[in-house]
């Protein structure tokens, strides 16, 4: 075991070897192989290329050198292309802070039985008058940056539960194709995290409709681990034990405290509220309003096909089929 693996338990070391192809004897060579590729992309400013940083990208791509480098390049390219998103990229930024305090995201105290961190989002908590969807995305990315410092989570990964209860059609209308693309690029294509499952509960019909927009832009591999549970929490409990879930998800623990993770990041500044104008943070139009493609944007702006609505009425068992994986 090298010093780069010092934070891993014996069980996680074995998991890294078996599932991620991590070999302590070749670890430094693997890292150097990725670092040597940096010269091939002079158009990107690689602000970090230290061993520990590159290692998280290798783990995210199971030690496939080129895939790890491509993810590393996309990580920095995404930040170059969306500079305004990463200005004041800290927990005390007013927009990020408001989103964090409303539980975007939340994190449960207990890991699941695979050692994965369970993130939770309560979609209806979004207060459109106080912060934007971009602020929510920034808060999630900032939180992942903090969590991915833990080598155990680099190996074991994350699980996400999104509760869509009381999420209104008006709120859903803000999930535009350009906003969805920004999120997909930031989370699927540009961040070194392993997502073992994304679980939707209590989703309304118009959340199903959003899949007609985003599905074509998800990788084939990325379509395997979104589970649509609807109101069937028993199906959720088959995958995540109720003993570690709060009562909102039919679990045995008390209701989730939305400020739990925010207090961890903000510490003594949690209660220091400052005024924030929701319009004070705005990304350049060319960034937020990128078209997915001329044909897809036209399709997404049209009326939802009746056959889509018909599919939404299929039984719960069919809705449980996995749709998305962010591994």
Set down the secondary structure blueprint:
Layout: H1 10-20, H2 27-36, H3 51-60, H4 65-81, H5 94-101, E1 106-107, E2 117-122, H6 133-147, H7 151-156, E3 158-163, H8 169-172, H9 177-187, E4 195-201, H10 205-214, E5 226-230, H11 233-237, H12 260-266, H13 285-288, H14 294-300, H15 306-312, H16 316-319
Parallel strand pairs: 2-3, 3-4, 4-5
Antiparallel strand pairs: 1-2
Task: Write up this protein.
This protein is globular. The chain has a 5-stranded mixed β-sheet with strand order 1-2-3-4-5. It has 16 helices and 5 strands. The two termini are 25 Å apart. The model is unreliable at 280-327 (pLDDT under 50). It has 327 residues and is of the alpha/beta class.
Strand order of the largest sheet: 1-2-3-4-5
Q: Helices and strands, in N-to-C order?
A: HHHHHEEHHEHHEHEHHHHHH
Sequence stretches where pLDDT stays below 50 over 5 or more residues: 280-327
Report Rg. Answer: 20 Å
Strand runs, count:
5
Shape by Cα distribution: globular
Helix content: 40-55%
Structural class, from helix and strand content?
alpha/beta
Annotation field: number of helices = 16
Termini separation comes to 25 Å
Major sheet: size, sense and barrel closure?
Answer: 5 strands, mixed
Q: In percent, how much strand structure appears in the residues? A: 5-15%
* Overall pLDDT confidence: 85
């Amino acid at each position: 075991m090298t010093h780069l693996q010092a934070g891993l338990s014996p069980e996680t070391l074995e998991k890294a070897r078996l599932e991620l192809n991590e070999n302590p004897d070749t670890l430094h060579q693997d890292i150097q192989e990725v670092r040597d590729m940096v010269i091939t992309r002079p158009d990107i400013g690689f602000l970090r290329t230290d061993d520990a940083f590159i290692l998280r990208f290798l783990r995210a791509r199971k030690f496939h050198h080129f895939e790890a480098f491509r993810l590393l390049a996309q990580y920095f390219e995404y930040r170059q292309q969306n500079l305004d998103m990463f200005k004041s990229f800290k927990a005390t930024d007013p927009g990020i802070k408001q989103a964090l305090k409303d539980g975007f995201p939340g994190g449960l105290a207990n890991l699941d039985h695979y050692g994965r961190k369970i993130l939770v989002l309560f979609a209806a908590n979004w207060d459109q008058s106080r912060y934007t969807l971009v602020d929510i995305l920034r808060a999630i990315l900032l939180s992942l940056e903090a969590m991915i410092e833990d080598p155990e989570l680099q190996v074991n990964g994350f699980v996400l539960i999104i509760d869509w209860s009381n999420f209104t059609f008006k709120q859903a209308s803000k999930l535009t194709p350009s906003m969805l693309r920004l999120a997909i690029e930031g989370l699927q294509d540009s961040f070194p995290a392993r997502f073992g499952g994304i679980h939707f509960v209590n989703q309304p019909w118009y959340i199903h409709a959003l899949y007609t927009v985003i599905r074509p832009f998800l990788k084939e591999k990325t379509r395997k681990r979104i589970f649509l549970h609807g109101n069937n929490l028993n199906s959720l409990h088959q995958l995540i034990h109720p003993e570690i879930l709060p009562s909102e998800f039919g679990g045995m623990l008390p209701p989730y405290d939305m400020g739990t993770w925010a207090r961890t990041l903000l510490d003594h500044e949690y209660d220091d509220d400052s005024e924030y104008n929701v319009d004070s943070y705005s990304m350049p139009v060319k960034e937020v309003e990128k078209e997915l493609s001329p044909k897809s944007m036209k399709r997404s702006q049209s009326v939802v096909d009746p056959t889509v609505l018909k599919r939404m009425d299929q039984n719960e068992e069919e809705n449980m089929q996995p749709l998305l994986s962010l591994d």
